[in-house]
Amino acid sequence: MRIIERISEMQHQAAVWRSGGRRIVLVPTMGYLHEGHLTLMREARKHGDEVVVSIFVNPTQFGPGEDFERYPRDMSRDVTLAREAGVSMVFAPPVNEMYPESYQTFVEVTEVTRPLCGQSRPTHFRGVTTVVMKLFNIVKPHAAVFGEKDFQQLMAIRRMVSDLNLDIEVIGHPIVRESDGLAMSSRNAYLDSGQREIALSLSRSLAEAERLVESGERHGKIVLGKVEERLKGNGELRIDYAKLCNPETLQDVTEIRGPTLLALAAFVGKTRLIDNKVLHVRTD
Ligand code: AMP
């Protein structure tokens, strides 16, 4: 497995692979890898010949006062884990390689990025779509794998790929969880043991909502009421949003009539966590 830091070198390697008929699959990450990322890499291997993992803490997707500087980083551990997961190449550019001083171009998906995380992080998705577009042009993948943990991000990328006619297959992968249900995240490293226990209320409230819907509840207000009640029982937790929405459009839903996304974001101490689940209505 090689590690490449330069854009020109990565583009050259991608061109060599392409001319040899190799199918390239990209897994974009911000590093500090965990089992969620590694699962995406193993999934990527099924879809092509060469798996490229990018490791880049992307400054343009962090707002002022967010955790860009203190975001956890451990390149040598990440490289070992990526190698073990069967990756061909790690692309880990420095910030000034991706964003030289003269940089001034952004890619923006306007609608699906508006609700949910777009409300509290108004510049976040334009940073995400911009860096992913750059990575697509650098790594030249035939396919790219993203986690449903960042459901809205996956939708924004699907929209961008469709709207800009990119010839890239976007593959979504379900959320990978710890054995107690906590969605894996690099930001979980910020949590002390008490906060980690509180953070569990996100996945637990999603499971409770699922049980309610399975038992016949269809009123969004009632489901969200239960979710909020469970989340609010925790002193150190502040809800950013708890929403039921259409998983295709992300528009709010009041009645659960078909597949419905329950999306959560909450601060536990200073750490912002997200989680989600698509609730299904039983038809039998
Ligand atoms: P990040 O490094 O947090 O930017 O995540 C890189 C990619 O891994 C994104 O596509 C995320 O959605 C995905 N990812 C992160 N955590 C998980 C998880 N627990 N399960 C599945 N995918 C994940």
Task: Please explain how this structure is put together.
By secondary structure, the chain is an alpha/beta fold. The protein contains nine helices and nine strands. Strands 1-4-3-2-5-6 form a six-stranded parallel beta sheet, sandwiched between helices.
State the gist of this model:
The chain has 9 helices and 9 strands. The chain has 284 residues and is α/β, with parallel strands linked by helices.
Q: How do the helices and strands line up, and which of them pair or pack?
A:
Blueprint: E1 2-4, H1 7-19, E2 24-29, H2 35-46, E3 50-55, H3 75-84, E4 89-91, H4 95-98, H5 117-120, H6 124-139, E5 143-147, H7 151-163, E6 169-173, H8 193-214, H9 220-232, E7 237-245, E8 260-268, E9 271-279
Parallel strand pairs: 1-4, 2-3, 2-5, 3-4, 5-6
Antiparallel strand pairs: 7-8, 8-9
Helix pairs in contact: 6-7, 8-9
The structure holds adenosine monophosphate (AMP).
Adenosine monophosphate is lined by residues 29-30, 36-37, 40, 146-147, 149-150, 173, 175-176, 183-186.
